[in-house]
Amino acid sequence: MKVYLKIHNRQTVYDFIVTVACCDEGLLNKVFKEGNLRIEISNQFYGEKLINLDEAIDILKQATYFNIVGKNIVNKAIDHNLLTKEGVQNINGVPMAMKMIF
């Protein structure tokens, strides 16, 4: 099973922020809407490289911030205690989750 993964680096005044974006392979370049919720799974944000699901989990384990979309990556992240089921939002049947630290 494969997923797209892209690492975003951003320098702020106070910190250097690394965000990992990851989506299931079949979701790239799709848009999902439900009510007033909308997610666009763009190549620009998610699509840097196609990798094995287990490799993606190893990267997410090290991430301070992440944004993940898709049944495969979300379920695997739950299995590895990277998030809880309660932290998952579904948009038109597609699960997504974010990890952020404030």
Explained architecture:
By secondary structure, the chain is α+β, with helices and mostly antiparallel strands. It has a single domain, classed as 2-Layer Sandwich (uncharacterized conserved protein from methanopyrus kandleri fold like). It has 3 helices and 8 strands. The protein has helices at 43-46, 53-62, 71-79; strands at 2-11, 16-24, 30-34, 37-41, 49-52, 65-69, 89-91, 94-99. A 6-stranded mixed sheet has the order 5-1-2-6-8-7. A two-stranded antiparallel ribbon has the order 3-4. Helix 2 (53-62) packs across helix 3. The longest helix has 10 residues, at 53-62. The N and C termini lie far apart (32 Å).
Give me the secondary-structure topology.
Blueprint: E1 2-11, E2 16-24, E3 30-34, E4 37-41, H1 43-46, E5 49-52, H2 53-62, E6 65-69, H3 71-79, E7 89-91, E8 94-99
Parallel strand pairs: 2-6
Antiparallel strand pairs: 1-2, 1-5, 3-4, 6-8, 7-8
Helix pairs in contact: 2-3
Keywords:
102 residues, alpha+beta, uncharacterized conserved protein from methanopyrus kandleri fold like, six-stranded mixed beta sheet, two-stranded antiparallel ribbon, 8 strands, globular
What is shown here, in short?
By secondary structure, the chain is α+β, with helices and mostly antiparallel strands. Helix content is 23%, strand content 46%. It has one domain (2-99): uncharacterized conserved protein from methanopyrus kandleri fold like (2-Layer Sandwich), CATH 3.30.1860.10.
